[in-house]
Amino acid sequence: MKFWKMNGAGNDFIILNNMEEHLPREQFPSLARLLCERHLSIGADGLMVVDTPTDGGDYKMLFFNSDGSMGEMCGNGARCICRYGYEQGLAGETQRVETTAGLVTGQRINQRQYRIRLNDPTIMELDHPLPINGISYPASYVELGNPGLPHAVVPYDGLKDADLHELRELGRAMRSHETLHKGANVNFFEIIGEDEVLERTFERGVEDFTYACGSGTGSVVAVLTLQGKVSGKHVQVHNPGGLLMIDVELEGSRIRNLYLTGPTNIVCQGVVTDEDLTL
Question: Which of 36, 80, 82, 213 is catalytic?
Fold first, then answer.
């Protein structure tokens, strides 16, 4: 079984081409849990499966978190899979990728930089406070696509120097908050300059902080644009794994297009030989 290991701003993924491997879909969750386990296998935030398109795209992207749960979409994963599609000859410099949350279009900028149009926001609640242990934390709630990929957007002063243990516990509590009916990725952010934001994301399905979250970054900037706190043009978002850029196009007070741009990295290519794997 051939695989690629890629990362987009530190958000890392294992990619399998099921148009070649022909694995039954019911095996993907257990395969994700095994292969994504760091130290015991290849290790990654998620598993992405490339499969035959069924709705007019160049190919289909199935995304599984490291705990085996299926994700609606993944922004950094989509950027990586666009590069995979280009490098493997599945699409040209413009890609149409079918995801569970809807069609995502991608654009090759250069060898390593890729830009995607994220799924449109289907839910935007700019005022969605999250009460935790008697404290009401200001937050917004966003879903991208349909079914929507859920994100809580939470301002956090002093994020750069925050105690990671405390922040992790807060993220864990918010991630499955009772007011979020299907849980959410929790995106803590702080504005650090004009059109410049710092972000840390506690991801649902990984159950910890990741080095970056592309759809979360898009959600943060979408909220801040609607609140008038950033311009929505070339907004720079600093994640632990690198810099991502967001562009927002508005139609009145409605987001019409949401673009994510950032780096990709092909870490390695090989054959899975994990002896714990049984297919």
Answer: 213
Is 213 tagged catalytic?
yes
CA angle 179, 182, 186 (to 5 degrees): 75
Residue in the block written with tokens 């990725």: 185
pLDDT in tens, 78-119: 999 999 999 999 999 999 999 999 999 999 999 999 999 999
The catalytically annotated residue of 36, 74, 80, 82 is: 74
Q: Name beta bridge partners: 202.
A: 186, 209
The strand ranges marked E within the chain are 2-8, 11-17, 46-51, 59-65, 70-71, 94-99, 102-108, 113-117, 121-125, 130-132, 135-137, 140-144, 149-155, 185-193, 196-203, 208-210, 235-239, 242-251, 254-263, 265-271
Which amino acid does the sequence have at 191? I
**pLDDT value at residue 278:** 82
Q: Residue type for 169, please?
A: E
Of the pLDDT bands very low, low, confident and very high (cuts 50, 70, 90), residue 153 is: very high
What string of DSSP letters covers 15-59?
A: EEEHHHH---GGGHHHHHHHHT-TTTSS--SEEEEEE--SSSSSE
Q: CA–CA separation, 96 vs 243, rounded Å?
A: 24
> Average pLDDT over the chain, rounded to whole?
97
Residue with tokens 């952010």: 189
Question: Is 82 a residue of the active site?
Answer: no
